[in-house]
Write a structure and sequence with these properties.
The termini are far apart. The model has no long low-confidence stretch (mean pLDDT 95). This protein has 13 helices and 19 strands. The radius of gyration is 23 Å and the shape is globular. α8 (223-230) packs parallel to α9 (251-259) and α12 runs parallel beside α13. It has 3 domains: 3-128, Methylthiotransferase, N-terminal domain (Rossmann fold); 148-384, pyruvate-formate lyase- activating enzyme, CATH 3.80.30.20; 386-446, Beta Barrel (OB fold (Dihydrolipoamide Acetyltransferase, E2P)). It is an alpha/beta fold and 453 residues long. 33% of the residues lie in helices and 22% in strands. Bound molecules: S-adenosyl-L-homocysteine, iron/sulfur cluster and FE3-S4 cluster (F3S).
Length: 453
């Protein structure tokens, strides 16, 4: 096999961290001379970057893997890699389950893909799941978008939410240095990117593990300081961050977001449940009153802010009245977007062992009722955009209508408008004429380029 006949395929499951890791792994593979192919059946190297947050996410991985494992019996030069959170959770057990695998690698090892593959190409079956200090990424990621980029700022999670596998699979918090983050963003600005999203499972924890304290006893490096540190990077016009944890969300951060023009008015702050007993059992470390206060403060200083969150229904022991408290919170706050999920017991988490697990029927019923309310509220929230002129960063063509472009408002609402693809990467002004629950339509009122609409 010659170097240029080597083709790789990556399928990514799960969250933005996995997407960011996949982009870095794709960059490493291209550095090794591999070329990307959409079709896994056409690839010599297939990598599944996996998610185990809920049981259905994990099962999906096994069905994909099974197909490639069978293909390996006909195509001996196929290299099969499982990366990400299922890899970390299952480790060697995955090799017993799928002996055709060449490499099982946890998320902390993503930047080491080249070294690990070298061992594979030398004839070894490799498992890399031991906890390590994450090496600074020196590769060039192959990013999906040319407009908006993910930038990891903190890996791992030190929380112990009783339902969640993430700390087990992503390891302890490791913050990247502000210099490394800034350098990456400066390079993105040079390459023409307009927007960055700073990523962490618990981004409010940024900097806690870095050395230094201020005279007032605060950590020297916090998310607020980081936003200030990267704010003046030339070319970058928008800065976002996710995911925020209500336990650590500060007024200082709200003030910085209101003050810094590039920081977009969008907050993703999962609340998980609107009931204090359930929040306690989840070990979330806040009450619904505190959560409401945070949203109130955000709306006081940024009335148009987009607010999104995650919530779980059917946590062990959740009564109908406790679930009603979640509905009440959603009704009162009116999220722009809410990711909802039925509780799924996960291996190695405390809540999975508790009695009082709810039946699938109860969970499905609550999920459906919550989703119904969510779309009603999101449609109501969307109305505030009608007639307004919004700044939209143009990302790509509308995949369903080639005469339209698609972008996002500062509040993160997806927006469609008639326009040509030269507008990609520009911030344009769009007058909103139609508002649906989760997207908007409008027409262009101002752009830098002459446009044919
Ligand atoms: N770090 C983020 C979320 C990470 S996981 C936070 O603290 O909010 C993404 C979402 O998946 C969570 O917000 C939660 O709503 C959901 N989730 C996590 N574990 C789950 C489980 N066992 N069952 C159902 N949903 C779960
Ligand atoms: Fe999971 Fe909680 Fe950490 Fe979020 S904060 S990743 S829910 S343990
Ligand atoms: Fe899934 Fe791992 Fe993200 S479990 S949600 S891919 S951190």
């Amino acid at each position: 096999m010659t170097a240029n006949s080597r083709r790789y395929h990556i399928t990514t499951f799960g969250c933005q961290m996995n997407k960011a890791d996949s982009e870095r792994m794709a960059g490493i593979l291209e550095g090794m001379g591999f070329e990307f192919t959409e079709d896994p059946n056409d690839a010599n190297l297939v990598l599944y970057n996996t998610c185990t947050i809920r049981d259905n996410a994990e099962q999906k991985v096994y069905s994909y893997l099974g197909r490639q494992a069978r293909r390996k019996h006909e195509q001996a030069d196929l290299t099969l890699v499982v990366a990400g959170c299922v890899a970390q959770q299952e480790g060697e057990a995955l090799l017993r389950r799928v002996p055709e695998l060449d490499l099982v690698m946890g998320p902390q090892h993503a930047n080491r893909l080249a070294d690990l593959l070298e061992q594979v190409f030398a004839g070894n079956q490799v498992v890399a799941t031991e906890p390590i200090h994450i090496m600074e990424d020196i590769t060039k990621p192959r990013r999906d978008s040319q407009v908006s980029a993910w930038v990891n700022v903190i890996y791992g999670c030190n929380e112990r939410c009783t339902y969640c596998v993430v700390p087990n699979v992503r390891g302890v918090e490791q913050s990247r240095s502000p210099e490394a983050i800034r350098n990456e963003i400066v390079e993105l600005g040079r390459q023409g990117y307009k927007e960055v999203t700073l990523l962490g499972q618990n981004i409010d924890a940024y900097g806690r593990d870095l050395p230094g304290v201020t005279p007032e006893g605060r950590h020297l490096h916090t998310l607020t300081d980081l936003l200030r540190c990267v704010h003046d990077v030339p070319g970058i016009e928008r800065i976002r961050f996710a995911t925020s944890h209500p336990r650590y969300f500060t007024d200082r951060l709200i003030a910085a977001c209101a003050e810094l023009p590039k920081v977009c008015e969008h907050f993703h702050i999962p609340f998980q449940s609107g009931d204090n007993h359930i929040l306690k059992a989840m070990a979330r470390g806040y009450t619904h009153e505190k959560y409401r206060r945070i949203i109130h403060h955000i709306r006081q200083s940024m009335p148009h802010a987009g607010i999104s969150a995650d919530a779980i229904v059917g946590f062990p022991g959740e009564t109908e009245a406790q679930f009603q408290n979640t509905l009440d919170l959603v009704d009162e706050i009116g999220f722009d977007l809410l990711n909802t999920a039925a509780y799924s017991p996960r291996p190695g988490t405390p809540a999975a062992l508790w009695e009082q697990q709810l039946s699938d029927e109860v969970k499905a019923d609550r999920l459906q009722r919550l989703n119904h309310l969510v779309s009603i509220k999101a449609a109501e929230r969307s109305q505030r955009y009608l007639g307004r002129i919004e700044e939209v960063l143009v990302e790509e063509q509308n995949p369903k209508d080639a005469t339209q472009m698609m972008g996002r408002t500062r509040g993160n609402r997806i927006t469609f408008f008639a326009g040509a693809s030269e507008l990609k990467g520009q911030i344009v002004k769009v007058k909103i004429t139609e508002a649906r629950a989760f997207s908007l339509t409008g027409h262009l009122v101002e752009a830098k380029l002459p446009v044919s609409v």
